[in-house]
Design goal:
alpha+beta, Pnp Oxidase, Chain A, two-stranded antiparallel sheet
């Protein structure tokens, strides 16, 4: 788990959320559980500057949506092989456990 701090898109006030994350290729990945309706995701769309508290470290970062098929393919393969929660996650979003469906959705 990590604590992600965003700025409210309307108020500009700090907003904190504890979320599960994955770590791959030197980057931290988080997934909005309700897609673009997720409040912290909407805050990031308005202002991508965030603070991340992970384990004993806290640091500033810029949140960037992953849209590149090559990066998404690498993520699919990595988390499919390492995360016991990946398949249930896919099922919860109505995504079949295959790369083509993952990339298309």
């Amino acid at each position: 788990m990590l604590v992600l701090t965003t700025r409210g898109k309307k108020t500009g006030k700090p907003r904190h959320v504890m979320i599960e994350h994955g770590f791959f290729d030197g980057k931290i990945y988080v997934v909005p559980g309700w897609g673009e309706r997720t409040q912290w995701y909407r805050n990031i769309a308005a202002d991508p500057h965030v603070t991340v508290q992970r384990r004993s470290e806290t640091f500033a970062a810029d949140a960037v949506p992953v849209t590149d098929d090559t990066e998404l393919t690498a993520l699919f393969q990595h988390f499919r092989n390492t995360s016991p929660m990946f398949k249930p996650f896919l099922e919860s979003w109505g995504i079949e456990d295959n790369l083509r469906d993952f990339l298309s959705k």
